[in-house]
Amino acid sequence: QVxxxxxxxxxxxxxGSLRLSCAASGSGLDNYAIGWFRQAPGKExxxxxxxxxxxxxxxxxxxxxxxxxxxxxxxxNTVYLQMNSLKPEDTAVYYCAARLVGPNSDFAPxxxxxYDYWGQGTQVTVSS
Length: 128
Description:
Elements: E1 3-7, E2 10-12, E3 18-25, E4 32-39, E5 46-51, E6 58-60, E7 68-73, E8 78-83, E9 92-100, E10 117-118, E11 122-126
């Protein structure tokens, strides 16, 4: 079983950058698909980026493609979400989630219900 802890959120001006971290304990992330989700007030939780257990399989929503980058550090057992060119509409609570898929898998679920483990969330606010 894996435990996830997000950090790195905060207040940033439009056009700025933040890097979110999702630190895992209890199990190595190389057997898990990881998703970064966000939820704004009154809106559904949406996937913004996903990575299969194969680190070279990454996926992005249309709204963040070209601005966000997901990566994984197996030494630190941490997944990162680098967010550049932030916009006010990126304001939300960001969550990382994990699902056990085994090593070398291409599978990275799209929907929140497909993930079994969640962090507590970190607030990102983009405002001038």
